[in-house]
């Protein structure tokens, strides 16, 4: 779930309305399909990598992921204000 939420991001939801107004629904749907294929590849590669790495590294990466979200809170609030 963390990988999926980090991959989607706020800008994907905030910029959808503008892209829909400019290009229309068909190209937007095509782009979403391409992005879903890329996200699937990233999630699959990350899940396969988890079997080759020790638990202590995943613990450290979990804390780094938490810190990255703590730093980006201001950006998320600003993007929510633009919607």
UniProtKB/TrEMBL annotation:
GO molecular function: amino acid transmembrane transporter activity
Gene Ontology, cellular component aspect: membrane
Methyltransferase as UniProt keyword: no
Record carries keyword Transmembrane helix: yes
Alphabetized UniProt keyword annotations: Membrane, Transmembrane, Transmembrane helix
Transmembrane stretches, start-end: 20-45, 57-78
Name of the protein: Amino acid permease/ SLC12A domain-containing protein
Biological source species: Aspergillus chevalieri (Eurotium chevalieri)
């Amino acid at each position: 779930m963390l990988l999926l939420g980090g991959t989607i991001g706020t800008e994907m939801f905030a910029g959808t309305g503008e892209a829909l107004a400019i290009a229309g629904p068909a190209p937007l749907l095509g782009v979403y399909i391409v992005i879903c294929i890329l996200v699937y590849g990233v999630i699959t590669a990350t899940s396969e990598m988890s079997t080759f790495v020790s638990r202590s590294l995943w613990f450290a990466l979990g804390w780094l992921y938490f810190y990255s979200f703590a730093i980006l809170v201001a950006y998320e609030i600003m993007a929510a204000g633009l919607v």
